Amino acid sequence: MNQLTFLTLLGIAIRPSEAQQDYTPFVNPFIGAEGPIPGYAYGGGDIFVGAAVPFGVVKLGIDTQEDNVTIATINGGYTPRGLVTGVSMMHESGTGGCPKYGVISQMPLTNVGAPINFLDNTTYWQKRVGQDEASVGSFATDLENGVHISLTGSRHAGQLRYEFPGDQKHVLVDVSHFLPEPTGGFCTQHYLDGSIGIAEDNKTYTGHGTYAGGFNLGAPYTVYFCGEFDTAPQDAQTWHGLNTSRVANGTTPQPTIGGRNVTAKPNGDRVGAIFSWTDVSSSTIQSKVGISFISIEKACAFKDTELPSWNEDDHVAAARKEWNADVFSKIRVDTGESANATNLILLYSSLYFMHLMPSNRTGENPLWESDEPSWDDFYCIWDTFRNTISLSHLITPEASESQIRSLIDIYRHQGYMPDGRSGNDNGLSQGGSNADNWLADAYVKGMRGDVNWVDGYAAMRKDAEVSTNGSNKEGRGALDDWLTYGYVTEASERSISRSVEYSLNDFALSQVAKGEKPEEAEKYLNRSAGWQHLWNHDTPSVKTTPVFTGFLTPKSGDGTFNTTNYNPATCDVCSWPSVTYEGTPFEYSFVIPHDVETLIDFMGGQTSFESRLDYIFQPNTSQTNLGANGLGITTIMNIGNEPDFATPYLYNYINKQWKSVNQSRALARQFFKNAPFGVPGNSDSGALNSWLIWQMLGLYPIVTQPVYLLSSPWFSDINMTINGNRTLRITAEGLGEDSYFVQGVKINGKEWQKNWFLHDDVMVEGGTIEFTLGEENVVWETEDGPPSPGHVRV
Ligand SMILES: *[C@@H]1O[C@H](CO)[C@@H](O)[C@H](O)[C@H]1NC(C)=O
Ligand SMILES: *[C@@H]1O[C@H](CO)[C@@H](O)[C@H](O)[C@H]1NC(C)=O
Ligand SMILES: *[C@@H]1O[C@H](CO)[C@@H](O)[C@H](O)[C@H]1NC(C)=O
Ligand SMILES: *[C@@H]1O[C@H](CO)[C@@H](O)[C@H](O)[C@H]1NC(C)=O
Ligand SMILES: *[C@@H]1O[C@H](CO)[C@@H](O)[C@H](O)[C@H]1NC(C)=O
Ligand SMILES: *[C@@H]1O[C@H](CO)[C@@H](O)[C@H](O)[C@H]1NC(C)=O
Ligand SMILES: *[C@@H]1O[C@H](CO)[C@@H](O)[C@H](O)[C@H]1NC(C)=O
Ligand SMILES: *[C@@H]1O[C@H](CO)[C@@H](O)[C@H](O)[C@H]1NC(C)=O
Ligand SMILES: *[C@@H]1O[C@H](CO)[C@@H](O)[C@H](O)[C@H]1NC(C)=O
Ligand SMILES: *[C@@H]1O[C@H](CO)[C@@H](O)[C@H](O)[C@H]1NC(C)=O
Ligand SMILES: *[C@@H]1O[C@H](CO)[C@@H](O)[C@H](O)[C@H]1NC(C)=O
Ligand SMILES: *[C@@H]1O[C@H](CO)[C@@H](O)[C@H](O)[C@H]1NC(C)=O
To answer: Which ranges carry the Glycosyl hydrolase family domain (predicted)?
Structure first.
């Protein structure tokens, strides 16, 4: 579909000096827009497609409705073929669960008479015709009613341009519009309250909307808006009507139209406005909309200052400049004639999707006064802690520090750091309290800056010591078990995956304690071995050849393992009530990054560890259906979801680095493509994308440790700007289509015999990593494998 439109842009790539290099032609904003079922988003990236700046509050794009409810996935607003229900200012990118946002909308119409009913989008929703067009900072589509829509935006404002086909020119504003949950699940969003008023000249309108719910079951949040048209409409009226989500009998009443100002209170009405141009010769109507979490005045100021002209090209240029300067230019590879265009597109598109979230809401926190930065849409850290945050630490250190300060400030004012957070409210925690891992990762890599580490450690300690009593909102809901037994008992949900995550969380605490509270380091280190309590050395695999023995196994509080009908390759629904979350015990039994040494030992030593690893990459070994979290993947190893992200690299721990290269590269090539179905599952705020970037760099970070594993780069020359102003250069001599096995490595000019290195080696002052690659797989590493700093036995 949209491929052609995107590729034509490549021709106009300008490449003058390095400083001005424009990387935006290499971004395909549709990668992840589609899943394995053509035309549907289901099982795809759930990405946002539209106009946005890095970490933008505004992500301006179309909202759609998909016809087949069983596979409808509208989390990012955009779907390849869904009917357009509106164009809205706020979106998430890459999330699963119920949609969040899709608020502050407009919809261009060419008819407002019967059968149109503003309370029923099914009467005006639109098919699209032709091909959607998207590039960094802009989006355009054609509706069946003949209206051409093009969108551009800035950090807190968006510009919407409509070309109408004839005399009928209307724009509907629906304050009560949001992205619904197609199946009407428990985490659907709600519209709670709204108001809208039209100014004297009919050109501007202002108001607010209040919404709640979504995947994080979030508390109500309010968005103020300020809209303006470039041309005064001759007719401008508000409307209000019954909250139709309450209508049970199928008849949607008509709204009441008329008046300059309307508010939802006291009857809980839906509210909106309709603008009509009856005496305007121009076919084009433009609108700018600013939003704020603080006030209408701020929303208007954002609109006026961030989008000073009506010239779309200016806005696109400004957005691209920001993307190039703040994001793309941090990783520079050769973009000349001889470059592999597919690899360029995969690299820069991945960087793009990694930087749509979280949202920088500094100055826009309505909940408390603070000098700390404010960020939202950590959605979720469960996804991004594994390698996304480690890449941010290197290439966007200012943002990374700012985000960490915000996490700590949330703890200060609301009690807990989030694992997920959106709409100014924490939720949900799928497993552990993984902000702990993020803080520890930054701490061991030397981040100090303006981070208050006394409070940072206190925030982590709260997670580790004060139970949230069965809640999934924040903290650790099964901490009572953890403190009582040293593991999560089978009486609690997700007992195995939470034990695995709490173990790493406590290791994270021990890492920070070493500097901040040395007397507590050992206690948390000991607790980080809790996963070992759940390791039953006698549990066999089921329906596998060969049979592997020794797995994480459900255990009761009295210390007995429950092996009744236990098959580690299955996990029932693999969700909230299961023993493991979005992955099987078979997979989670590999996820102990802080103590791989014990893991290898428990699996029977290096040889059986290796054969178990080999097994999970074999086709048709999966025994469970992970639904949209593993669609089309038949191996136990599931690269479509986060828990297994580091697993392909575990061969480094037994000094068979070539196998890590082989497995990880094969996964990347099979599942990551320059195509709408180009990522193997929800991109999860860019988590899947950052996995690919690390793969292309030839490195993989071990979170909570200042350690990077070496794999094999996809480019022969990479310059990365790290630590603000230093350069890491990665070169690959001998790289070719079939020539990617490491023959040798030099770091800072020195022959390197280890398949890993430390942060200080090249990530602080910069440096060089020189790979020599070839077609032969060889065991080139002669020194010890990567460390297990959490090595301790219970
Ligand atoms: C909806 O999608 C499911 C899964 O692809 C399919 O089995 C079903 O036939 C579809 N229903 C309709 C009405 O198209
Ligand atoms: C469209 O209207 C239907 C029927 O009223 C409603 O269920 C759905 O949530 C609406 N969708 C959007 C995107 O507003
Ligand atoms: C109605 O809304 C307009 C535009 O926001 C505003 O200027 C005006 O003060 C409002 N009037 C009343 C009575 O609230
Ligand atoms: C503004 O809209 C109102 C209500 O539709 C209309 O009566 C009025 O004439 C419009 N004003 C202008 C300047 O067109
Ligand atoms: C049925 O729909 C009408 C509007 O058409 C509404 O007034 C009434 O309250 C609805 N009845 C129920 C039981 O929902
Ligand atoms: C609209 O109805 C939904 C569902 O019953 C409810 O959650 C929400 O609070 C209502 N909104 C208003 C403004 O009353
Ligand atoms: C990387 O930097 C070196 C040293 O400045 C330069 O010679 C080389 O051309 C750069 N390579 C790329 C791909 O930017
Ligand atoms: C680009 O690299 C990919 C592997 O990432 C390979 O499949 C493709 O053939 C290469 N394209 C060209 C034109 O060399
Ligand atoms: C976050 O937003 C604030 C306010 O717009 C801005 O000053 C700051 O530079 C931004 N931080 C980052 C890392 O983008
Ligand atoms: C959890 O339960 C304990 C004991 O009942 C109570 O003291 C504590 O406040 C509860 N914590 C939360 C976060 O609700
Ligand atoms: C043991 O596992 C089986 C199978 O999952 C389950 O039905 C049973 O309730 C479990 N026993 C206890 C004591 O939890
Ligand atoms: C990099 O930035 C730091 C902090 O601003 C500064 O102290 C240092 O001199 C800079 N180094 C280089 C090589 O520019």
So the answer is: 298-774
List, for residues 185-242, the tens digit of each pLDDT value.
889 999 999 999 999 999 999 999 999 999 999 999 999 999 999 999 999 999 999 9
Q: Give every CB contact of residue 204 below 8 A, 6+ residues apart in sequence.
A: 198, 226, 227, 228, 229, 300
Q: Is the pLDDT of residue 12 over 80?
A: no
Omega before residue 546 within 30° of 0, cis: yes
CA nearest ligand 10 atom 14, residue: 468
Q: Give the CA distances from residue 738 to residues 81, 735, 742, in Å, rounded to whole numbers and listed in that order.
A: 38, 8, 12
Amino acid identity at 681: G
DSSP conformation letters of 66-96:
-S-GGG---TTS--SSPEEEEEES---SS--
CB 457 within 8 A of CB 435: no
pTM of the model: 0.96
Phi, psi (degrees; rounded to nearest 5) at 83: -75, 140
Q: The tokens 């009572």 sit on which residue?
A: 480
Q: Which amino acid is at 470?
A: G
Nearest ligand to the CA of 714 is 8
Edge-first strand order for the sheet with 699-702 is: 699-702, 707-710, 756-758
In this structure, what token pair is assigned to residue 503?
A: 């173990």
Task: Report the C-alpha gap between 160 and 150 in whole angstroms.
Answer: 6
For residues 654 and 608, give the distance between their C-alpha atoms in angstroms, rounded to a whole number.
11
| Tens-digit pLDDT profile for residues 74-106 | 999 999 999 999 999 999 999 999 999 999 999
Substitution site in 245, 252, 267, 271 for ligand 6 pocket (most atoms within 8 Å of beta carbon): 245
Cα–Cα distance, 50 to 64 (Å, whole number): 13
Q: What is the pLDDT of residues 715-754, one digit of tens each?
A: 999 999 999 999 999 999 999 999 999 999 999 999 999 9
The answer, yes or no, to whether any atom of ligand 3 lies below 6 A from the CB of 203, is: no
Q: How confident is the model at residue 248 (pLDDT cuts 50, 70, 90)?
A: low
Look at the block and give the residue holding tokens 């009506």. Answer: 310
Overall average pLDDT of the 779-783 stretch: 98
Confidence of residue 246 (pLDDT cuts 50, 70, 90): low
Q: Is the CB of 556 under 6 A from ligand 11?
A: yes
C-alpha 478/C-alpha 501 separation (Å) is: 11
Pick the residue whose CA is nearest to atom 11 on ligand 4: 234
Q: Output DSSP code: residue 117.
A: B
Determine the pLDDT at residue 183.
Answer: 86
Q: Between 3.40.50.970, 3.30.450.40, 3.30.428.10, 3.30.2080.10, what CATH number should domain 464-774 receive?
A: 3.30.2080.10
Nearest to 410 by CA among 443, 445, 378: 378
Q: 3-326: what fold?
A: Beta-galactosidase; Chain A, domain 5 (2.70.98)
The bridge status of strand 726-733 relative to strand 767-774 is parallel
**DSSP sequence for 341-387:** HHHHHHHHHHHHHHTS-SEE-TT--SS---SS--EE-B--HHHHTTT
Going by their DSSP bridges, the two strands 284-292 and 157-163 should be labelled as antiparallel
**Nearest residue to 664 via CA among 641, 643, 645:** 645
Helices within 355-478 (DSSP H only): 381-384, 388-395, 397-414, 435-444, 453-465
Rg (the chain; Cα; Å) = 26
Q: Where in the chain is the domain with CATH 3.30.2080.10?
A: 464-774
φ and ψ at 376, to 5 degrees? -140, 175
Would you say 270 and 255 are in contact if contact means Cβ atoms under 8 Å apart?
Answer: yes
Quick check: CB of 469 below 6 Å from ligand 10? yes
Distance CA 348, CA 357 (A): 16
Angstrom distances, CA of residue 743 to CA of 647, 651, 663, 700, 765? 22, 16, 17, 18, 26
Stretch(es) of the chain classified as CATH 2.70.98.10: 3-326
